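Is this the right way to post structure tokens for a design question? Let me know if I should format differently. Anyway, here goes:
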């Protein structure tokens, strides 16, 4: 499964979804801010756009900027997945994004892994 999405009229956020061993892997590139929050949310949610799959890896290797909007999306999806007895894991965040996640404590809530491979196999 592959699904590329871009924010309307902008090249600021690009999202690709695929399934690896039953786990949704969402690779994100660009800036996660107010303009891209809906694209990120929809990519993390199931294909019907309303519920989250049980297991998700968010590959943030291509994310160059994230503000509180992105954090809110990740926490919301984490809560939905956890309610369904599943999990959300963050993989390969660039140093600036990882530092933000650590400062606000998201890394204590959502496990952060060095690579997508590590997140898939944790």
């Amino acid at each position: 499964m592959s699904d590329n999405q871009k924010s309307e009229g902008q090249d600021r956020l690009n999202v690709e979804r695929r399934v690896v061993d039953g786990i949704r892997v969402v690779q994100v590139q660009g800036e996660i801010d107010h303009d891209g929050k809906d694209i990120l949310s929809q990519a993390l949610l199931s294909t019907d756009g309303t519920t989250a799959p049980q297991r998700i890896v968010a590959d943030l290797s291509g994310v160059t900027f994230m503000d509180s909007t992105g954090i809110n999306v990740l926490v919301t999806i984490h809560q939905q997945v956890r309610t369904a007895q599943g999990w959300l894991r963050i993989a390969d965040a660039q140093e600036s994004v990882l530092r933000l996640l650590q400062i606000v404590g998201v890394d204590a809530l959502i496990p952060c892994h060095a690579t997508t491979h590590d997140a898939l196999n944790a």
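Format looks fine. Someone answered above. Worth noting: The helical segments are 37-44, 68-83, 95-104, 106-109, 116-121. The two ends are 22 Å apart (CA to CA).
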